[in-house]
What we know:
Jelly Rolls, alpha+beta, four-stranded antiparallel β-sheet, 8 helices, single chain, Arc Repressor Mutant, subunit A, 2 domains
Amino acid sequence: MSVKAASRRPVDCTSCQYRSTRMFCNLSPAALEEFNALGMQMSLPKGAVLFHEDDPSTGVLILCRGQVKLSCSSKDGKTLILKIAMAGDVLGLGAVMSRTRYEVTAETLEPTLVKNIRPDDFLAFLEKHGQASMHAAKALSEEYKSAFFDARRLALSPSAAGRLASVLLDWARAASCGKPELSFTMALTHEELANLAGTSRETVTRALGKFQKDKLIEVRGSSIVILAPEQLGALTT
C-alpha cells in the first residue's frame, strides 16, 4: 500500500501527549501553531511503503506513532536493514533539505501515524523559525551518529551475540522515551533481525534463547523487555 492510499486528515500537534519528549516537535507556542497548520496526518497499515530508495523526495514525514523499517538494496537484489525508526523520528529530512532522492526505502512495521509535509512548506518553515532549524540540524546529527555507531557495531563488535545485544539495547532505549523499563515491540522476524545485526537467522534464534535463559531479556508476547541492560551491554564491547 502506498502513501497515496492512506487515510488522511488534518493534524493537531498541540494536543499530542508525546510532543515534549520528541526533539523536533517540541517547539515554542508560536512555532508550534504554524507547524500545526502544515501538512496532513496519515494513518497507514502494516506493510505500507512511505517512499522507495531513489525516489525523488516529495516530503518530510514526522513519525507520530508506530515503527518504520528503513532499508536499502543492491543491484543484485540484496537488502540491508539500516534502522528501525520510532515515534518522533523525522523521515526523508536529508533528501528534502538537499533536494535529492531518498536514500532508503521506508516501510511500516505496524499500524502507523505520520505527518507528511511538502518540501517547500517544510523548508520555508525552517527558514522562518530558527528553533526549528536547530532541531532539524540536531536530527541530521543524530542520523549521522546512528550511521556511525551502526558501522562500528558491524565492523568491531567481537561476536554476533554482541551485535545483537547492541541492536536490542538501541531499540529499547529509543522506544522507552526515557521511561525506567526498557522494552519494545519486536516487529521483525528473526531473519530480518539477523539482517539488522549482520548475522544469520540461526544465530539470532540461539542468542535470543541464551539471553532469556541468562535472564538478560524477557519475552512478553510480541514485546521484549531488557532485564539486565548493563550485562547485555557488556557483550557489545
